[in-house]
Amino acid sequence: MLSRSDITLITGATGFVGAAVARNLAAKGHRLRLMARAGSDRRNFAGIEAEVVEADLSAPESLPAAVAGCRYLFHVAADYRLWVPDPAAMRRTNIDGSIALLRAAQAAGVERSVYTSSVAALGLTLDGTPADETTPVQRSHLIGAYKRSKYDAEQAVRALSAEQDIVIVNPSTPVGPGDVKPTPTGQMVLDAANGRMPAFVDTGLNIVHVDDCAEGHVLAMQAGRRGEAYILGGDDMMLGAFFAEICRQAQRKPPKIRLPIAPLVPLAWLLERVAGVTGKTPLMTTEILKMAHKKMFFRSTKAIWELNYAPRPAAAAIAGALDYFTAQGLIK
What we know:
332 residues, alpha/beta, Rossmann fold, 7-stranded parallel β-sheet, 3-stranded mixed β-sheet, 11 helices, 40% helix
């Protein structure tokens, strides 16, 4: 039973998943405190009744005030970019910042923390069948600065769980309403729905409704085992099937051209060189192409059995995203 004096802190509420977690907790009667950086875009949590505290994972001295008086912590914030000019900055946020926040939470007497990792931190099977929390991780499969930072951060958090009550969740690829920026996956939904996706590289991914992902966070706080990790996923889909379902619902013709990966590598290399000069994220990178060789398929069996997690079909996640983008006037 929650007391009105209890405070639940959420980091990353300016983001897609963090805002969904905040909405879920608000509906359940939690007294919320949302952590945001100074000057950050706060449209995602507009309308949610909450105290807002300004703090930054890259400024450890700002974190004790953020967690002071809190009973629960949902650490959802992360530096999520598929290309970064300075990987060290990403590591300072995702690893050092997470450790500093959880240390501050421990010192403040936080009862339980839920740490949002990612399926990017998990192992993949060699034959493309769905992986789970026990699939061995090979460092050679941790392609890109983001994946490496999330893997190392999760290992550090596991070590901290020996000293404090922490549960880990590993969301797959969230899709659905409230994708303000939008995320890279949300942008793919928009492009396909607007007929701007003429071709694709057919890889595999796991699609989860963002609201199911948020509910999984709350279930992990309620029923998760200390130090354990839980995949919060939905349906496995090949990228071509994902685009086909988007276009079916948007009444568009789906893209038919499946591009081979190898000929795209020189173009990706060139785009990276240009990005190094302009500082703008390239449309394609060599690391993204390397990741496309692997099917990011996952099982959520552990969360289903232990947390009573119940994800809906990917088609519902796509419908939620399309309804939201249509309401925002972003789909023609």
